[in-house]
Amino acid sequence: HVNFEDSNRPRTPKASAYFYSMVFDLPVPSKLPNLPASEVPSKAKVVWQKFSSQTDFERDVYFYGTFPEDFTWGVSSSAYQVEGGWDADGKGPSIWDNFTHVPGNIKNNDTGDIACDSYNKVEEDIYLLRALGVKNYGFSLSWSRIFPSGRNNSINSRGVDYYNRLIDGLVANNITPIVTLYHWDLPQALQDIGGWESSALIDLFDSFADFCFQTFGDRVKFWITFNEPQVIAWFGYGVGAFPPNVNDPGSAPYRVAHILLKAHARVYHTYDDKYRASQGGVIALCPNIDWVEPKTPSDPRDIEAADRYLQFLVGWFTHPIFKNGDYPEVMKWKVGNRSELQNLPSSRLPVFTAEEREYIRGTADVFCFNTYTSKIVTHATTRLSSWPSSAITDHRAVAWGLRRLLNWIKEEYGNPPIYIIENGVGIKTKSDIDDNTRIFYYKTYIDEALKAYKLDGVNLRGYNAWSFLDTFEWLNGYDPRFGLHQVDFDNPNRPRTPKRSAVYYAEIIHNNGIPLPKENEFLHGEFPKNFWWSVATSAYQVRKPRRTLKVFVDNGKGLSIWDQFSHTPLKISNDDTGDVACDSYHKIEEDVEMLKSLKVSHYRFSISWSRILPDGTTSYINEMGLNYYERLIDALLAANIMPQVTLYHWDLPQALQNVGGWENDTIIQRFKEYAEVLFQRLGDKVKFWITLNEPYNTAYSPYVVGHNLIRAHAEVWHLYNETYRAKQGGLISITINSDWAEPRNPHNQEDIDAARQYLQVQRHLVTALPAAPGFVHAGTLSLGAGDAQNPGQLPEFTESEKQRIKGTYDYFGLNHYTTVLTYNVNYPAVTDRSWLNSGSFWLKVTPFGFRKILRWIKEEYNNPPIYVTENGISERGALDLNDTWRMHYYRSYVNEALKAVVLDGVDLRGYTAWTLMDNFEWAVGFDERFGFYHVNLTDPNLPRCPKASARYYSQIINCNGFPDPATGPHPCLELENSTVCAFCSFRSWSVGLGSFRIQVWKIIQKIP
């Protein structure tokens, strides 16, 4: 900026100058621009306003990309936490040496006397740093190792030699030292004269820093004066938890902070005046900052409370340096007002003179900070949220808070060059070599940093993980472990072992971020010309008319086990039932119109056994029930939509359950007789049959149920094959559900075995596909109760049953939704924190698993014809017809299916989305919604309203895949506008369906 009102035309660099210097690697100016005092609340409140409107999908979607070439990756540690050698080679005692030697002060009476013994392991540590591939290493100097008495009249040459060896070793391996002058371990001799409450420490600290600049500054180009000065002031002198254990929260922290700021400024000016010209480094201080989220972002009082929290937490130290040389206005007002109410003669917050303000202002070349977690704040109180916690109670993993924090720093301090010096997670364990939790933490936090840099223009220059090694973690001793390398503290040699997170972080560094994997790149193209596009429902979930248990027959229908179950109090969420559901029984015409609008070629639905055979047997056939299905099928065929019919989708007639259900061998004959009625009456129009939907969910325990389900399936298949196929020419098979399973640690054989077993159990337990009969060998599993005669084991088939079952399929029917991570056959599967959530706790958005499971089926079963018979995503909470997360799901999953066909040669014949409309979702009632159409259950007419995903799915179908946008607008994207029902929220469609279609397509195309 040029001030044209001044005859000298003075120049002042703008924030853009610093961003430009970052891009082109130009020298960083010695001083950042002076900024005015923050308002109350500060202008940075725009960050909360910007992000408060984010949906969970927008907030959590994973972002791929890389950082600039000069981005610096590193790890950090501190002297007392890793060095050991507390009294070696002339070192003087620090306040932490003495504090830890008092029994009861530290958990397990741990001390830092040996710690990681880094004092004696310089070469080993540098080797590990080189293996990580870091560009920098952040560490601190032990003041009492260099000046045992805290003064420069007692220089310890052997301590100086140690740091020279460390710095020389780093520089020789192209690792930049980031050196902190003070990380809490004050020489005890200086504490004895008052510590940081004494202004004498300003000169003494400057003398120490001057020596360090002179001794190490030819190789050290990045200096930090104080690490987390708030901790020094508050934990040391406020609550007194840390040494020197002064418990004076009202006044001492403010006095100490005042001295720390003046000491920092003195050291900065010493470097600026004496060393910068010859050494060319940068210098700053490094506060800790938690992100603060207003409990109610729409409440200005909560935003003001969050801003005030940050001003007290970080502005306390950064506002004087990066703003106007003084404390934040809100801090001065709050403390001063409270002091006045306490009848004190002056504010407990000290006052800087005009000269001091000018001296302090601008004393940082870059903005460094440490961050670990986020908090929720209200205007009434401050409290932690229920976000997942780590070993340190306050360290809860809330990755999206980092992006918002970086944006706040950008807005509040004019987008200075920013370096994250510490970020990591502690885990309570004696050993965590296979530290999946830490990988998830880094995976999500680094991704949020990438979003801030790429999407928000934050001037982020570097990221350091905390910590390089498992270290002494202050009051917690060695209990929580933060390290990328495990240290065996029970072994006198303190051996180091890289954890899996070290390997992961090394990959991040090597890739300079998170580039999109080749296999995740979007594929443009079409499915085969005869590909089937379908959508699914099931009888109990959508089709049941109004009725009560008091009436046994309504339109001739008998009770099913779900009728009985859903009327048992507390069994279903909100005590929902399927009594009305979507009332598809009376809405054939409306449902078919929806299907026509979707442009599907097929429609998958199930038959209600108890609607056809009220007591489950052929003793009475309900003609009204059959007539309903005949009318539905005729309406579908008239619309050129082919029916895909499931014989059994869980709703067994209660009469059959009363005599044992699937545990009674006689049900095999009952199921066969029921199927024959349907083949006889509907088979001339139905050419695609599914015997059983997801038998695994029916049969999991006891195994005898699975045994009978397989036998029943086989009998029905043979019935159709031998009696009806020649005349009717249809296909018949079974459809199974399966997640994809990945080993949590792909390098761990136990995890690999667990993934393999997980897949085998879900498929082989009840599938009729394999070259073998379909079961795993008896006795190889013990996952459930088993039957009474053979607990925990699978029943055996006779040789004749094996022959009868073998090969009873015309295609492989697959329901698939998500992926899990396995790590032990005896433990439940887990998920990756970076995976997007859905409205169902079990359903994470993992499209990569869809391609993998299709490829696995191809390889495992000799590439059978595959029809995906269910795939979709749920939502909870307030209705939003603009369901971008569902469009993202279908775009991603269907594209993975396209890759399986085009790139992997999978014989995929058709794809079915779940579900046509929001319906009764079993035990969760109507809380979870999977539909393309919303059903208004509060309206007796149950109107259906299309969501944005309905139009998007119809576009995929119309295009038979994904046309390449590089070739220009494709005609298949031009769909006619459809009528929107009156219930639909106008706000979701106010942009007009035509422009909305184009905008949605553009947005979805950009999502990786």
UniProtKB/TrEMBL annotation:
GO terms for molecular function: hydrolase activity, hydrolyzing O-glycosyl compounds. Transmembrane segments: none annotated. Its EC number is 3.2.1.21. The active site is at 422 (nucleophile), 870 (nucleophile). It is an enzyme of class 3 (hydrolase). SUPFAM superfamilies: (Trans)glycosidases. It comes from the Eukaryota. Keywords: Glycoprotein, Glycosidase, Hydrolase. Belongs to the glycosyl hydrolase 1 family. PANTHER family: GLYCOSYL HYDROLASE (PTHR10353), LP05116P (PTHR10353:SF36). Homodimer. This is beta-glucosidase. It comes from Aquila chrysaetos chrysaetos.
